[in-house]
Write a structure and sequence with these properties.
This is Rho GTPase-activating protein 12-like protein. The protein is mainly α. The protein has four helices and no strands.
Amino acid sequence: VKDYSDENRMHIQNLAIVFGPTLMRPECDSNNFAYDMMLRMHSNQAIEFLLLEFHNIFN
């Protein structure tokens, strides 16, 4: 998918947005929207890092 990102617009950031909430979901949502968004942002950044460094991490 990433290799065809110019055609399908699924760049690393977009892939992280799609997979981040599924792969790194918090145990429970808080009642604080800003805190939940911050957690999602950090999980997306972690997934983005894993996607970028996949070959180095899992080699």
